[in-house]
Amino acid sequence: MAAGGLAGLLPAQTQLEYALLDAETAQEKENLVYQYLKKVDSRERDLTVPELGGDLQWLNTEGPISLHKDLCGKVVVLDFFTYCCINCLHLLPDLHALEHQHSDKDGLIIVGVHSAKFPNEKVLDNIKSAVLRYNIVHPVVNDADATLWHELEVSCWPTLVILGPRGNMLFSLVGEGHREKLFLFTSITLKFYKERGQIKDNKIGIKLYRDSLPPSPLLFPGKVTVDNSGERLVIADTGHHRILVTQKNGQILHTIGGPNSGRRDGRFSESAFNSPQGIAIKDNVVYVADTENHLIRKIDLESEMVTTVAGIGIQGVDKEGGAKGEEQPISSPWDVVFGNSVSGTQEDDVLWIAMAGTHQVWALMLEGGKLPKGSDLKKGVCLRFAGSGNEENRNNAYPHKAGFAQPSGLALASEEPWNCLFVADSESSTVRTISLKDGAVKHLVGGERDPLNLFAFGDVDGAGINAKLQHPLGVTWDKKRKLLYVADSYNHKIKVVDPKMKNCATLAGTGEANNVIGSSFTQSAFNEPGGLCVEDNGRLMYVADTNNHQIKVLDLETRILSMALPILNPEACDVPDNLPVEKDKTNLPKLPKSAPNIQLPSLTVAPGQPIQFLLKLTLPPDSELNEEAPNSWFVTAEDNTWLLQGQCLSGEIKDVSCQTIIPFQLPRSCLSTEAILAIKACLYYCSKGSSACMMKGVSFSQPLQIATTNQGSLTQVELIHAFLTN
């Protein structure tokens, strides 16, 4: 047994650490580690890690793994992590690099031991999402009850424990920033035990979870924002490492970066991001928190160019800043929002940054100006505004003495009496405010009074400290109603906060991770929503429903979660007819189960023949189309996708008082003499006399008999349906 846990390693490893500080050459360091291994390996009794329980759930493997059977003869790095923790995320690039250097055939295996902080993180499906989101390719075990954590007396996240080929503990590394030691310890351990013939080169059964997933138009979208006109959305398609600019109906206007991670400025087609999160748009300029590149990027939608305006591309440890943006190292920026300096003459002359990696809020000066309690600053300077850098829930009248814990969302309320930044402080499970008059940091809702207690989380509606949240990642300000909305991510809810009364209440979501649309707010369901925004006119809210890979649309007036925004590719209407249709080009809305399926008479057509479907829909009396919602038609052909080559597969329904024309043309080369085409329509309409709003659909099934004759003339087919009741 591991008598004393990690404490048993402490005396000898502490001696080694001190000796390494005095070593001047790489050879000296290697010799010191080698001698240390000789010493601990010759102990009468190994410090052994206990076997993992056979009932634990595993990811990225073909089945459960035994530490003492399957991993016998391997050097094993145990990574004790929890997926909410920014320090754990900072360690992942080091582990990726180590895996590239030493494979399981070389004798090295990394095992992620997920030891949850929050109850939500104990759920296997949520860990699966995190494994995919952060591209973890080694085995991960869900130690939901923290059994191994307690056995080894692990005390914080992240902690690495390096084991020898007998499951014998050799080293521990606590916290982030130990890359050099990690590589040194593992390489010398492999050498030491290979010389003794104790390393086995057998492969471990790896089966990556990501390989079993279907393609998706969005992958873990982290944030969403809307421009001042309400006509354009900007989506951080985080898992695809790209930024999408779309119309409000989901039609893509610009795709910037992706699908693979990278770090490149330049034209949209050649630029690259790494898990971007926060975005802010003004006119034709978008700023991006390029989180895992540790950069702030600027997108110019007119010139279609991407540039870097802050960060140097590697994780920074500086907690003060003050250099020109592109020379200033920064750490895991998670959100950005425009704001105004104290003395500036231009609007939106500051970009506020939620710097999750250093537990602070920073500022990038877009023009020269002054921050509260600060001196004059030049354009381009990037510096800390609030937060000491200590991971705390500490409020203070002096912004530099306050403490945050992984701030992940920002919203600005510039009007009086607020004039503040709202901060979603995820690891303290609070929402805080920073005054833009004097920089004072104050509590709004969640958490508790002890600034060092980061475990005061829950799901409780209430006022101030009596309200409880669980790892909130996003906030947005409703200018019309003077309310704040919170993405209470690990509670799978959207909450509303009245900052005047400090009251926090559930607005939408059941509290269970699920995916329910077309329903009232209280019946709707989300899965770890990460970001949200509200139109300036206060009508629609857009939610980045991260683990459902969707942008959800909430109507704040009718209080209906109407739909998941379809992501429509602009090329869908211009596909060369010799190319197959890409199934993942559109994320078509699902029709309600109540939608009728109308069978049309069979139609005889010829290859290449054009068809016009004339869609005529009638709403119930005293109803009107909700023009804010993306009313649309779309065409599918489940068993005959060859029919869809070169077609325009979807479009808007703008007015039901006149017919909508849906064009279609048979391919010149038909693969079958019979096929069925489905033409579907999805409408959102409201009763004039009440606030009730409906999502309704209809499907028309058109059988086709394809003759071998030459191309026929244009054929018109009427698609008629009346929605009878509300």
From TrEMBL:
Pfam families, per database record: NHL, Thioredoxin_8
Domain Thioredoxin span(s) in chain numbering: 38-198
Gene Ontology cellular component list: cytosol
Taxonomic superkingdom: Eukaryota
NHL repeat coordinates: 526-557
Keywords: Cytoplasm, Repeat
Coiled coil: none
Subcellular location(s) per record: Cytoplasm, Cytosol
Residue ranges crossing the lipid bilayer per the database entry: none
Subunit-structure text: Monomer.
Function recorded in the entry: Required for normal embryonic development.
Protein name, per record: NHL repeat-containing protein 2
Organism: Chordeiles acutipennis (Lesser nighthawk)
High-level lineage: Eukaryota, Metazoa, Chordata, Craniata, Vertebrata
Gene name in the database record: Nhlrc2
